[in-house]
């Protein structure tokens, strides 16, 4: 666990905002140059909490290829790690995968003093000088004001493999979507899915604040070239009535701009306390039925591109072993979510 320093004399430092690096996961990066998940001035009023959470960099990725034998990273965060139930490596760290599409293998996670807001970390050093395709996953629950990539002097850098499509998979949801409480960024379920489906994912999970406001529907509808919209926000609905009121309107607003884009509605994963709280279990069942009925009604009216996924089955029969606090998944929980969602999304995208 020793914190290694690279030694600046050995490296040239690059901003990933320049070529040939590719930064994914930020829908407005080209216009604004910020690692932010919503536009700075969206044109629609959003809750203050959502606006603040948009600075968290969940789902962001830096992609490139290099023959450098060493790789380091310098990071300037918006704040320090401060969560009791989520590791600092997931909240504020980067992790690294090596390999091409469908062959990405985890390599390492940044090691740093979690009390600091700026850190430098060696990802790897003194490896063979051969081309490797690199993916660096951004922190899940903190903002990144600046990040720099350190490579050996004289190393070559090349663009990463192109995506299968220029279209984006947009995922709107809650703290679970955002990645709470993965031990490191690559284990957030949208990042796991991105290693199995070679397309850009936009993670629009807002911890405690994915409530299906119409303003968010309008903003999401403005994202160009969507491949699919995933709605996974039931867990933040404070009442069954709120879900019943927001879900049909959210879908209708999105459909005005994108009448044929697939929409996948996911009911929430089970909570451990449901085994001991009959009302909690009933509320989940009632809300699942609202989502099923909403999807069925639209399909009966001719919308063949809307689908439902039963989230209560994603964690398996021993779902209570898959969370940190009864509701937020561990890495095991996120892996099971991705295992269940991968064939569903592949089927939807292929059709």
From TrEMBL:
Give all residue intervals belonging to the SGNH hydrolase-type esterase domain.
167-346
Could you tell me the superkingdom of the organism this chain comes from?
Bacteria
SGNH hydrolase-type esterase N-terminal domain boundaries: 13-157
Q: Does the keyword Hydrolase apply?
A: yes
* Keyword Hydrolase carried by entry: yes
Give the GO molecular function terms. Answer: hydrolase activity
Q: Which UniProt keywords are present, listed alphabetically? A: Hydrolase
Name listed for the protein in its UniProt record: SGNH/GDSL hydrolase family protein
**Lineage of the organism:** Bacteria, Bacillati, Bacillota, Bacilli, Bacillales
